[in-house]
Amino acid sequence: MSKPKRRKPSSRHRPATPGARRVSVLTVTVVLAVGICASVVLLRGGALRGTSSPLPSLAIAEAQSAATAVTATAGFGPLRGRWLRPDGGYILDIRDVDTSGKIEVVYLNPRPIHVARAEATGDGATLQVFVELRAPGYPGSTYTLRYEPQRDQLEGSYFQAALQQRFAVVFVRMK
């Protein structure tokens, strides 16, 4: 008598291998992630059209903030450069302005003077610069300047902290 043929178990009844389990878990994870992303997109879309979520959308606020930051960085462009104060030979070298308005600057008289704080602000067409100096002879002296695009100048006031006096100043762009 011959041996009965052994049937191969069908793949549907085969016990899962560890690799197959990983693939199944990965598939479920991807499906869930896609579902969550789709839900977020739908909710954001409804919030943008004003038809859905009654709660303020954090994503919309972040997107608006990022757009404002890009605009601010582009808007601060005219401030970059070397500026000379003709009445004393002082130099304000504005090297960069980040999206928050923080300025990377060097102040020279003729040697570098420590800049404790420097920031730019912009409201509409007006760009302003604030620089605080902290060094011997400059105990918290500050510049408060506005950019005048017609003349390509920084104009404003210098507060000499040691003397407790303000002076009108102008910086012209060095070419």
Overall description:
With 175 residues, this protein is α+β, with helices and mostly antiparallel strands. The protein has 2 domains: 18-73; 77-173, Lipocalin, CATH 2.40.128. It is built from 2 helices and 9 strands. It has helices at 18-49, 58-75; strands at residues 81-85, 90-97, 103-108, 112-113, 115-123, 126-135, 138-148, 153-160, 165-173. A 9-stranded antiparallel sheet has the order 4-3-2-1-9-8-7-6-5, covered by helices on one side. β6 (126-135) and β7 (138-148) form a beta hairpin. The N and C termini lie far apart (106 Å).
* Residue-averaged pLDDT: 75
CATH C-level label of the largest domain: Mainly Beta
Q: For the largest beta sheet, what order do the strands appear in spatially? A: 4-3-2-1-9-8-7-6-5
Describe the oligomeric state of these chains in a short phrase. Answer: single chain
Query: Compute the gyration radius: what is it?
Result: 31 Å
Low-confidence parts: 46-73
Helix content: 25-40%
Major sheet summary line = 9 strands, antiparallel
Write the layout of secondary structure elements.
Elements: H1 18-49, H2 58-75, E1 81-85, E2 90-97, E3 103-108, E4 112-113, E5 115-123, E6 126-135, E7 138-148, E8 153-160, E9 165-173
Antiparallel strand pairs: 1-2, 1-9, 2-3, 3-4, 5-6, 6-7, 7-8, 8-9
Short descriptors:
9 strands, alpha+beta, 9-stranded antiparallel beta sheet, Lipocalin
Write a brief caption for the model.
This protein is α+β, with helices and mostly antiparallel strands. The chain is built from two helices and nine strands; from the N terminus they run ααβββββββββ.
